Amino acid sequence: MLIREKHHRLTPDSYIGQQIVAFTLCVQQRKPIFTDNDIVEYFRKILLEEAAKQQCNIHVYLFMPDHLHLIIEGMSDHSNNLQLVDKFKHRTGCWLYLHRREFHWQKDYYDHIIRNNEDLRKQIEYILNNPVRKGFVVDCKQFPHKGSTIYNFDEW
User: Fold this and answer.
1) How far is CA 103 from CA 7, 15, 31, 50, 96, in A?
2) Domain ranges across the chain
3) CA 18 to the chain's CA centroid
């Protein structure tokens, strides 16, 4: 049976400029790779490098065991959130192929544009509380695999 690939609901130009976009990237078969601190740190480094290249800020990133949450904001008219995520997935996917072949990113990801600051704050809080809802920690400040290029979450 031929399975049709789903197309992005957003046009490529929706990701360019000073847009705020939320993404969720999942590991194939929901395999838990982000329980390894060294892998999380390496992927975080690549994420921050690609954000700088694309002139983007990351409001929040949070590595759950089998997926990654991101909220990215373009800081210039030339910023490209989609290119940031695609390059991040490509670079980390190559690393997985070379070092951890049993893990792969799912081909696609979930995304949506965030249109106002109130919605942004709620979504950041929702993402930060994901480890609490899953029972990994009692307080989101205890969860180690999170961060931002804008905020210090210990002060929230």
Assistant:
1) 23, 27, 7, 21, 6
2) 15-155
3) 17
**Buried b vs exposed e over 96-115: b needs ≥16 C-beta within 10 Å?**
beeeeeebebeeebebeebe
Asked whether the predicted pLDDT for residue 114 surpasses 90, the reply is: yes
pTM: 0.91
User: Is the pLDDT at 3 greater than 80, yes or no?
Assistant: no
Q: Which two tokens stand for residue 143?
A: 């969860």
Q: Of how many residues is the chain composed?
A: 156
Q: Which of 40, 11, 9 is nearest to 146 (CA)?
A: 40
Check whether domain 15-155 has CATH 2.40.50.1020, yes or no: no
SS3 58: strand
Cβ neighbours of residue 45 closer than 8 Å, sequence gap 6 or more: none
Residue type, 36: D
pLDDT digits (tens, 9 = 90+) for 46-60: 999 999 999 999 999
Kindly state the tokens that stand for 146: 């999170």
Say how far apart CA 140 and CA 135 lie, in whole Å.
10
